[in-house]
Write a structure and sequence with these properties.
Two copies of one chain form a homodimer.
Chain A: E1 6-12, H1 20-33, E2 37-43, H2 46-51, E3 55-57, H3 63-70, H4 86-98, E4 101-108, H5 110-126, E5 131-136, H6 152-173, E6 175-181, H7 188-191, E7 206-208, H8 216-230, E8 232-238, H9 268-280, E9 287-291, H10 295-298, H11 305-324, E10 329-337, E11 344-350, H12 352-355, H13 375-385
Parallel strand pairs in A: 1-2, 1-4, 4-5, 5-10, 6-8, 6-9, 7-8
Antiparallel strand pairs in A: 2-3, 10-11
Helix pairs in contact in A: 1-3, 1-11, 4-5
């Protein structure tokens, strides 16, 4: 296999995760050790930092600080949401040439894979040899060609712990509680709320994914049904729920350069659903909504250990694959090994074109009707999220009444 | 001191906290051990459960499950928001008599102290001997006559960790991020966001408490100033911020029986401020808002160890005080000992009337101008919240440019 000597460049892109810096540090440590890699740089704010030539020397960072960075949420290099024009791609390659960049690792979601794909086409066109690899991250878990993505396990853990506590809260005060979860096209993270359900009667009682059609009347009927059954109702909805025509139920107005509508960073959907229930469900006296927002992707202190470990390893694997020369470009992915039923992550490489701008939805076997998730999903997700705390519950032995209960005004 | 033999009854009231069940378990274990206490019951949903005679026998709960309950957020007995009428008070006393309840412990905020106060007046009127004690809890930290309240430390820890992560998130993608924090009348919890600021340039860059007046134009000017200075702006605002006339900036419409307006469980304020910045601050290109909501008070897995310990101990102290007969009624409170500068909690008793329906605001020495919190607050809050994780930051040694940077469209 062909050897290629030169510098490596790393960038981070898209929405942060709690473990995206684990991948950064995995990349840096493997680049530093490899004899073919003559230096390792970081681009500030991804593609934008390359265009503006804002590069830093990651080889000079201390081992100790890198370990602290690995434990810190969000993109230490700074992130960006920008799809490069053909002109921008040429500019990026000029910067690559000027600094002898022969390895480029872009840590991000499917938009980042698309960027790597465009850069690769541009490099082939001018005959510049550079190995371009997309390193996956996204809390949305919606990349094509993988079992799951780094970042999902920790975000899913946050959602599960949040629902475990909020179920206790809803049990304390009753009423209807609606929580809006991130994930515009795929319901993986919303589905993770299901992990909070341990005992009969636990919430969330209703779970709505963007994979299905959200019917307002059916929703209200189901909320009423749960109120009658449990005396309360805890609901998980994806920010991307939509009607039969595909129209999202509530949204902001901004659109980024990849064509994505802003759904996060606003309480609009939660408030809309709250008002809907108040006006249509007569049994609903107390209705509240929370939008979990950015806490899901960058909370400091709630991570899945398995997720952190895999995020680190996927960075190391990217350097192994790139330097081996077995392929010139590609997208790293995690598959699931099936060794005697125990969970095992496998690190593989997909074509960039497979991942770019594609979305992987929650499959049918993980969905249970129009408003629930299957136990197969729970089995699938558990090793990624790790063991959750166990809530206590009073046995509540009743005391026999000694008075004639009176009705008070 | 007079001895009083009979059953003890425990209730929980108001908004949940992450450690309110520690107080419950502290009460139960001390009641079970005390020779004057012949049994220990729990009222389901506080005062409502007494009126409806929905009582459970807490003495029959297993030690093991009680320990799990202590670690579980929100009110294990169920909570309530209800101010008893004179008729309801008489009914409560009938139930007390029927079950020989001679000790009543009500775990809650100032509304709960008010309820205990009303019950005490009613008991005196009919000459029924019962020892009535309010056991404090509130994430808002706004009870009169104390240094701080159980529940605050854990909620403050959640807010601090959330801001630590969100500061990294805001640093990654830039723009303006506004986070709305609970606390309708007092800014203690909003002030806790300040604990996230470790290094020069860290957010939150602006902190707005309900103790001050919120001026819309001044807010926009300061956001613009921070954008120019830091290239981004992270803002903490209390849900209770109000204008010079005392009118809240945004609110829902519900009012409970204690006269409190609903501010939580809606994204209205965050969305309003977000639109305000978008329309008035030309430099603000990306503006997002999150409302932390109920996660602050009942997240499963983020607690302050000191807070958990004190919540347990305040329950035990309530039983010690009640059974000693040194006072017939009162409200437990935590004061701060001043032994050689190290932190030490002291458990004291206040008059119920001191605590009932009073609000303790953030004092002037903890406030820094119109949009910041002082370092004295940080010193005060740190022992209550505990050690926070330390974020890593790249040294970012710049690489010298080798091209002529070009402007791209």
């Amino acid at each position: 296999m062909s050897q290629l000597r030169g510098h490596a460049l790393i960038g981070q892109s898209g929405g942060p995760t709690a473990v995206i810096n684990q991948s950064l540090v995995g990349l840096v440590e493997s680049c530093v050790e490899h004899p073919d890699i003559t230096g390792v740089y970081g681009a500030l704010n991804g593609i934008e930092g390359i265009i503006e030539e804002r590069l830093i020397d990651l080889g000079r960072e201390s081992r100790e600080e890198l370990e602290r960075v690995a434990m810190t949420p969000a993109a230490a290099l700074g992130s960006v949401r920008r799809k490069p024009t053909p002109e921008a791609c040429r500019r990026v390659l000029d910067v690559f040439k000027a600094h002898d960049i022969r390895y480029f690792f872009y840590v991000g979601g499917n938009d980042s894979a698309e960027t790597a794909h465009l850069l690769n086409e541009a490099a082939l066109e001018i005959g510049y040899e550079v190995r371009l690899f997309h390193v996956p991250k996204t809390i949305d878990n919606d990349l094509a060609g993988c079992d799951h993505t780094p970042g999902f396990g920790s975000a899913a853990r946050f959602v599960a712990q949040a629902f475990m506590g909020d179920d206790q809260d809803n049990r304390s005060l009753g009423g209807v509680k609606i929580n809006v979860i991130m994930g515009r096209h795929a319901g993986w993270l919303t589905a993770a709320s299901r992990l909070a359900r341990r005992h009969e009667g636990d919430g969330p009682h209703l779970i709505y994914l963007p994979e299905g059609v959200f019917d307002r009347q059916e929703f209200c009927d189901r909320v009423e049904e749960m109120l009658l059954k449990h005396g309360r109702c805890l609901v998980a909805v994806s920010e991307g729920i939509h009607d039969a025509e595909g129209k999202v139920i509530a949204s902001g107005t901004e659109v980024d350069s990849h064509g994505n509508i802003q759904l996060s960073g606003t309480g609009a959907l939660g408030d809309y659903l709250s008002e809907l229930v108040k006006s249509k469900v007569s049994a609903a006296k107390r209705v509240r909504a929370d939008t979990f927002g950015y806490l899901q992707r960058s909370f400091f202190g709630v991570i899945s250990e398995q997720d952190a470990l895999e995020a680190r390893e996927v960075g190391r694997a990217a350097v192994r694959v790139a330097t081996s020369g077995e392929c010139q470009h590609g997208s790293l992915a995690i598959q699931r090994g099936s060794n005697d039923g125990t969970y095992e992550p496998l690190y593989v490489v997909n074509d960039l074109s497979v991942v770019a701008a594609a979305t992987r939805h929650v499959p049918e076997e993980f969905i249970n009707g129009t408003d629930d998730v299957s136990s197969a999903f729970v089995e699938w997700a558990t090793p990624l999220v790790g063991a959750l705390p166990v809530p206590g519950r009073l046995a509540s032995h009743p005391v026999s009444p000694r008075t004639n209960a009176t009705q008070l005004s």
